[in-house]
Amino acid sequence: MKKFLATTALAIAAGSFTTASIAEEGFYAGANLGIMHVDLGDASNPFNVGIQLGYHFSDNWAIEGQYTSSLSDGSFENPSYYGPDNVDFSVETLAGYGVFRSSGNVYFKAKAGIINETIDAEGGYSASDTGASVGLGLGFRQSDAGNFELEATIIEEDVIYFSAGFNVNF
User: Fold this and answer.
1) Which residues does the UniProt record annotate as the domain Outer membrane protein beta-barrel (predicted)?
2) Which neighbouring-strand residues pair with 94?
């Protein structure tokens, strides 16, 4: 019985990966939210929200622009004797990606592109950098009109954006 259930579950899962593609061609827009994980000791991480606009130019390939900004700041302990004990900071990003989505109602997503990030910290500190960015995700096609995606995007070597989002196809 266990073998039958396992085989049935595997067959259903395999079928969901091969039934349909996201969209043949056309625009999509979406929103996302998540944790901007910053590898900075005991820092609390900012909570970001974002928007994206993309264009599917084939069944599996798209280009996508994405903007995110901190809805709530993160903070870290200031090791200096000068200034506040805790320093609040935010992360803002603007990126352009080439995106691959596999076919199916449940699908794999991979993206690579260029990103500009700005980190603003309490006390007037601000830093901006432009570089490469990559991400991986898992998507769930809700209908021809939209899909839900879970992603991890490397912003830079010590910043990763873990997000959940929804896209609407036009």
Assistant:
1) 9-157
2) 67, 116
Sign of CA dihedral 62, 65, 71, 72: positive
| Domain harbouring 11, CATH code | 2.40.160.20
Closest residue by Cα to residue 64 from 117, 133, 140, 138: 133
Q: Helix, strand or coil for residue 2?
A: helix
User: Which residue has 């830079």 as its token pair?
Assistant: 156
| Tokens of residue 158, six digits | 């010590």
* E strand or H helix at 128: strand 125-143
Side-chain-facing half-sphere of 13: CA atoms under 13 Å: 6
Q: Could you give phi then psi for residue 40, rounded to 5 degrees? A: -140, 65
In the chain, what is the straight-line distance between the N-terminal and C-terminal CA atoms, in Å? 45
Number of separate domains in the chain = 1
CA neighbor of 166 nearest in space, from 140, 127, 144: 140
pLDDT digits (tens, 9 = 90+) for 93-145: 999 999 999 999 999 999 999 999 999 998 788 999 999 999 999 999 988 88
Among residues 32, 31, 59, 70, the alpha carbon closest in space to that of 152 is found at 32
Residue 87 belongs to what domain range? 2-169
Q: pLDDT tens for residues 68-77?
A: 999 999 998 7
